[in-house]
Amino acid sequence: xxxxxxxxxxxxxxxIDDLIKYSFIARNxxxxxxxxxxxIMAGRHAxxxxxxxxxxxxxxxxxxxxxxxxxxxxxxxxxxxxxxxxFQEEKEHPAIIVTDLSKSMFFGSKKNMKSVCASQITALMAxxxxxxxxxxxxxxxxxxxxxxxxxxxxxxxxxxxxxxxxEANNELATVEFExxxxxxxxxxxxxxxxxxxxxxIVVVISDFKRYDPTVIQALLNLSVHNDVIVFKxxxxxxxxxxxxxxxxxxxxSQIEINGKNKKTLESIxxxxxxxxxxxxxxxxxxxxxxxxxxxxxxxxxxxxEQLGL
Length: 309
Description:
Elements: H1 16-20, H2 22-25, H3 37-40, H4 47-50, E1 54-61, H5 73-79, E2 83-89, E3 95-100, H6 114-131, E4 136-141, E5 146-152, H7 155-171, H8 182-195, E6 201-206, H9 213-223, E7 227-234, E8 245-249, E9 254-258, H10 262-285, E10 290-294, H11 299-307
Parallel strand pairs: 3-4, 3-6, 6-7, 7-10
Antiparallel strand pairs: 1-2, 4-5, 8-9
């Protein structure tokens, strides 16, 4: 399948201008200001996202009106007088955006391919984090390769990363479908562990269709000392099948699904919902926020809705 067959179809392929427009949309996403973020972004180390956005600077004597949650109990006990912690505003934090643009993402039944949604989320988050003063870099996962751009603060580097995303997106029609992503997964997390020490913001965008448990464990490990945010992209057809007989393939084998059988349709829907819930519950249990993004609506509308804005 060649790109030229789809070049006039919106939602299948991207140009860099399609992502640059998110520099304007990002201004309406306020990760640090929404009260709803307190519950969605409540990770162990998510103070930068929850609204405090401060680094400890010093302790001083407590005065009326100070937040009692900031009392420095160690100094208070030592000096026998109440002291409170003083924070200085954090100016920036390094951020890594991991974008899955492997073959399973080249799927969509309505408005966009999952790969297009993932690319749009990447641009939105890149511009948002950069606009907040964070150094932004990223990793693009392909079936057989990994592209990496180290976190920097300049616009040229951000644009270079987005160009890598566009390039990978537009290659999807011609790449071979690989059943396992294990090789590129290993590369990704090897590079992440080399890049990341602590206090990073790590954004992971994928459909999580072909990830093995080691990837989930790696996310949990990263969340111990970093703020991890997950965007899970899905298509309605993965949940609700049409009421007709359809053939589906994974690139090697093909199966036929009888959508006229209501029990089959209900079973597919229930299986999808159960797996989605298990995924969200597991990550939430480790205080990793998960945004569920479908391919039918704009990604900014869905993110704002889930943030309660």
